[in-house]
């Protein structure tokens, strides 16, 4: 009696197992179709999706910042109003309107870099080091905003000076970046390929990882620690925040080094910050260019730019600088096609053997057929 029952149970389990496999295959097929349609939609509308995603990213950032900072702002406003009310209660001879005018004038002068307190009145915003710091901050588009021109002539000069200086600075930074890129990126990647036997993609990923780690250590973590030691009122997080807003050219005015120290210390910190800005921006541009050359980053860029972007490659900027022997040469643009399109599976005629000629006068090697090789003299 137990055998038929056992066999019936096994057959039922096998039936349900096969049915479950069918449903699983159908669900997998449906998921694959939906994923393919979603990927096709993203490829067609990639740029639009990126713009929408960026807009949502900005809105989410604003909402999160509002949620985090608005309670602190309300608390600070309440404390200031209580302090003002307590001062008026302790000094009944002072009118509220007179106190408001005094506070407005003091705050306006403070925003323009002029201190109203006697202890900070010896601070000069336009000595040489302060002016150099101001110019570097403007030319690198950091613009901390702690120091502003007080005269109309100074404002006009800043406008004209920056109209010429900002493009000149960008040109200098771009030239230095492209000059350093072969030494900092291309040569190490080539050495990793030759000596370690890595593929170019893996070598580039390893090099960019090491480069990013060294940059974060030398230009963010260590300078933040030094600022934390020099500025007694700053925490390590505040020092790291200053380094980030400086090298990202955000330049918020809430943190500036040397404001609570002597004049000589402030001048030294301003000069060091000016050098830190220029050197740090050059290094960050080199790191960004190194990451930009990664295959994964290029694939993402092509995905959002469209399938036809980058198919036609003309002459690059470096190739425009030709030697005297190649002045008349003109490179034809070429299309990057798949290997299956360039080389078919079989050839109807036998391939003609080719011989690679040696380079002549710096020209690249020329591949010639055996019949076209000139006889040796």
UniProtKB/TrEMBL annotation:
It is found in: Membrane. One of its GO terms (cellular component) is plasma membrane. Pfam families: Ion_trans_2. InterPro entries: 2pore_dom_K_chnl, 2pore_dom_K_chnl_TWIK, K_chnl_dom. GO terms for molecular function: outward rectifier potassium channel activity; potassium ion leak channel activity. Residues 125-180, 211-291 form the Potassium channel domain. It is a multi-pass membrane protein. Keywords: Ion channel, Ion transport, Membrane, Potassium, Transmembrane, Transmembrane helix, Transport. GO terms for biological process: stabilization of membrane potential. Belongs to the two pore domain potassium channel (TC 1.A.1.8) family. This is Potassium channel, subfamily K, member 7. It comes from Cyprinus carpio (Common carp). The lineage of its organism: Eukaryota, Metazoa, Chordata, Craniata, Vertebrata.
């Amino acid at each position: 009696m137990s055998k038929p029952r056992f066999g019936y149970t096994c057959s039922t389990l096998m039936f349900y197992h096969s049915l479950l496999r069918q449903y699983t295959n159908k669900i997998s097929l449906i998921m694959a179709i939906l994923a393919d349609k979603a990927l096709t939609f993203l490829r067609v509308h990639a740029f639009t999706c990126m713009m929408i995603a960026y807009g949502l990213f900005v809105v989410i950032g604003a909402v999160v910042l509002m949620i985090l900072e608005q309670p602190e702002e309300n608390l600070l406003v309440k404390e200031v109003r209580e302090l003002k009310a307590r001062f008026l209660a302790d000094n009944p001879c002072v009118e509220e309107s007179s106190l408001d005018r005094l506070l407005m004038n003091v705050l306006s002068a403070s925003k323009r870099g002029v201190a109203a307190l006697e202890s900070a009145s010896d601070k000069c915003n336009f000595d040489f080091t302060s002016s150099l710091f101001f110019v570097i901050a403007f030319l690198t588009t950091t613009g901390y905003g702690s120091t502003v021109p007080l005269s109309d002539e100074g404002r006009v000069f800043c406008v004209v000076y920056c109209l010429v200086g900002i493009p000149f600075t960008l040109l200098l930074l771009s030239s230095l970046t492209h000059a350093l890129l072969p030494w900092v990126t291309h040569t190490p990647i080539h050495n990793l390929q030759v000596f370690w036997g890595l593929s170019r993609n893996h070598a580039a990923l390893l090099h960019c990882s090491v480069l990013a780690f060294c940059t974060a250590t030398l230009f963010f973590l260590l300078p933040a620690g030094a600022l934390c030691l020099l500025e007694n009122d700053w925490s390590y997080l505040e020092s790291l925040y200053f380094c980030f807003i400086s090298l990202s050219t955000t330049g918020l005015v809430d943190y500036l080094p040397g404001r609570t120290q002597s004049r000589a210390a402030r001048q030294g910190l301003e000069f060091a910050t000016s050098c830190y800005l220029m050197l740090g921006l050059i290094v960050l541009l080199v790191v960004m260019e190194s990451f930009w050359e990664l295959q994964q980053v290029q694939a993402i860029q092509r995905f959002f730019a469209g399938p036809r972007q980058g198919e036609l490659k003309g002459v690059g900027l470096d190739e425009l600088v030709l030697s005297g022997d190649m002045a008349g040469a003109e490179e034809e643009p070429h299309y990057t096609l798949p290997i299956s399109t360039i080389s078919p599976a079989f050839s109807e005629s036998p391939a003609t053997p080719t011989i690679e000629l040696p380079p002549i006068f710096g020209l690249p090697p020329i591949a010639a057929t055996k019949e076209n090789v000139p006889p040796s003299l």
